[in-house]
Amino acid sequence: MNDHLSVETPEQININYQIAGIGSRFFAALLDTLLLGLIVIIGAYVNENFIEELGDFFGNWLGAIGGIVIFAIFWGYFMVFELTTNGQSPGKLALGLRVIKEGGYPINFADSAIRNLMRIVDFLPFCYGAGLLVMLLNQNWQRLGDLAAGTLVVRTTQTKLRNMRSNESQNTLPNSIATQEMIYAAWIKPMLVTEHEWNLILDYFHRHAELTAIRQLELSRTIGKPIAEKMEGKGSINYHKFLMEVYTLKTSEHAKVVEVSTKKEKL
User: Fold this and answer.
1) Is 73 exposed, middle or buried (0-12, 13-18, 19+ CB in 10 A)?
2) pLDDT at position 259, please?
């Protein structure tokens, strides 16, 4: 079985991932199952007590609604967390795992829906028997849901860009832009930039001098457009300049955090 996977994104950026094995995925699933079970038990208890208080007619209606809500929580638990926390359920977060697309991108609603609906099949005949068998036969440790959705589970702590080198000169990165020169700063939200997106931005600036003008335009748009849409950016956008402003605001934000931490240590 492969422990590492190299993915070349459509932007021709090579990313090395360490694939999560059965052991770490099992413990992540166990943590999620325990948390999910606790949520369902609390929900069922609250629902039952409301039924007793409201009597037969209203109680039956509430019981039906409560049953639907519990069902939605049970099946929507993984989807909600994977879509709102960059592919990490609480169990995966605790174990340092993340779900991604095979192409190296974050998963979307359809990907999460497919891989989680397939849990029914993966669970057969019991305790993820089918899923475990498929994972053992698959070089990337993918269960049936992963194969159907085209997803992978990787270790977040081991993700790094192959094209970035520790001894690479920092002068390939853009200089900070003065606030008065920024045109997108009003709606840029640096905290929304994920680790994966930040790595793509850094790699873009490390390589952009080597790219043709057309390739710079294509690559900056490919990386910047999803980020701008997430930040609800408006108007016509020069994505190269947008990424420069994101870089400036993100690095200045980090510098402020370091400065505050240093002051606290001195105190």
Assistant:
1) middle
2) 42
Write out the two tokens for 212. Answer: 């043709």
Q: Do 99 and 87 form a contact (C-beta atoms < 8 A)?
A: yes
Q: CB of 204 within 8 A of CB of 219?
A: yes
Mean pLDDT calculated for residue range 12-18 = 66
Tell me the range of 40-49, 72-81, 225-234 where mean pLDDT is highest: 225-234
Distances 146 to 21, 79, 134, 188, 243 between C-alpha atoms, Å: 13, 13, 10, 33, 32
Candidates 38, 128, 48; CA nearest to 77 is: 38
Span 139-175, pLDDT tens digits:
888 999 999 999 999 887 544 444 444 344 444 566 6
CB 160 within 8 A of CB 168: no
Neighbour count for residue 12 (Cβ, 10 Å): 11
- How far from the centroid of its chain's Cα atoms is residue 227's Cα? 13
Angle at which helix 239-266 crosses helix 195-207, to 10 degrees, equals 120
Residue 35 in tokens: 């948390």
Q: Which tokens sit at 57?
A: 């007619």
